[in-house]
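Sequence only, no structure available. Ideas?
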Amino acid sequence: MTGMDLEAALALYRDRSNREILAVVEEYEKARGPADDPSLKTLEASHDLFTAGKRYRYAIACLGYQALTGSEDFKAPARPAAWLELYHLYTLFLDDIMDEDDRRRTFPSAWSSNLKRYTGKDGPRPGVAFRTARHRYGVSMAILDALRIRSLAERAIEGSTHLDAFVRERLLEVLTDTDLRLSDGQGLDIDFETRPSLREADYERMSHLKTGVLYVAAATTGALLADAPPNRTEALEEFARRFSIAFQDRDDVLGAGVVSSRIGGSSEGDIRRGKRTRLFAITTARLPAAKRRSFLAAYGKGPRTTAKDVRLVRDLMRAYALDLMMARIRENVDRAISALRSSNPSGPPASILESLALAQLTRMS
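Reply:
I predicted one. Tokens follow.
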């Protein structure tokens, strides 16, 4: 399957995901009634973020359901699987606050959009924990919006009345387990920010908790809805786990700009922020002492980062880490496909999932 064919195949799931997400949000807003106060309009201000993104988690859940059942449609998982992307959006709202990112997928992040809605005359004055009262307002509203969105993720499951009550209960358990484990991963990611070195094993643990558990939850969702036996469920979950590793590693290669990239944000962002990735872990482990000192001095300087710093970091990453990074991606892609095949899938959905895994070897955005 070519890249264009894969994109066309995934568009069906992305469009359906967006429709389901907006439907859940609009149902909530309609039930809430008129929103005249600024704080009740912040969710609406972030609607552009609701339909941005690849929607891979939703696609894996629906494609997994189809591959395990042999069904040509995905009506059964269409609404309940929306919890995955609503939950992911919830984590992004909080992630942008913790990273102080004012952009998300080329759009203003939720907290930065909310700054515009603050009407107090004390806007320029500093808050206790924020640069200004406006920043405190924007961040506070983004946290409240994130909590609303997380609740809407639950509602996507609870409102799927066509499902057996046991299945709905199990999906809610998956969401709760994801909540706890992903929070641990986000905490480790923050802990790692000040480390001058990082073992690959430590990075993998953090990355699985922060990113992988939601992909595995997507596979679990599809398997639960398909009423798949344990062996086929476990195989699909292993596909999702291995896929998530390859996906995150590819994202980090793109985020550092060491390969051709068409990502929506800056390809220097990870270097400026000093993001701790597998690429960082491999580079710092392989560099000679003198070059390692130069690398660390140029990495993570924030607004003080120069073009020379970016060139030095990229050159060292390409020379000392890129080959092993690509080998890691290839290894996990191969293991993902092997696990998928062992789940005994059927029909075109299985081919789409394989192509999605293979795309991580060459993806540019």
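Residues 3-358 form a domain with the Farnesyl Diphosphate Synthase fold (CATH 1.10.600.10).
Hope that gets you unstuck.
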